[in-house]
From TrEMBL:
Organism of provenance: Rotaria magnacalcarata
InterPro entries: eEF-1beta-like_sf (IPR036219), EF1B_bsu/dsu (IPR049720), EF1B_bsu/dsu_GNE (IPR014038), Transl_elong_EF1B/ribsomal_bS6 (IPR014717)
KW rRNA-binding (keyword) present: no
GO cellular component, one term: cytosol
Record's keyword terms, sorted: Elongation factor, Protein biosynthesis
GO molecular function, one term: translation elongation factor activity
Protein's UniProt name: Translation elongation factor EF1B beta/delta subunit guanine nucleotide exchange domain-containing protein
Record domain Translation elongation factor EF1B beta/delta subunit guanine nucleotide exchange: where: 1-50
Family: Belongs to the EF-1-beta/EF-1-delta family.
Annotated coiled-coil segments of the chain: none
Signal sequence region: none
Length: 50
């Protein structure tokens, strides 16, 4: 979901369930930050681990 912040800046809000044995939250953040031309920062608002 794209959430407007200010002016033309938008936040991409993603909901997911992370299975800790398969992938960690650090790995997800790193993969998103690889899109450096489009992503300024990554923040985890809340999460649930299985």
């Amino acid at each position: 979901q794209l959430v407007p912040l200010a002016f033309t800046i938008k936040k991409l809000q993603i909901t997911c369930v992370v299975e800790d044995d398969k992938v960690g939250t650090d790995m997800i953040e790193e993969r998103i930050m690889e899109l450096e031309d489009h992503v300024q920062s990554v923040d985890i608002f809340s999460f649930r681990k299985i």
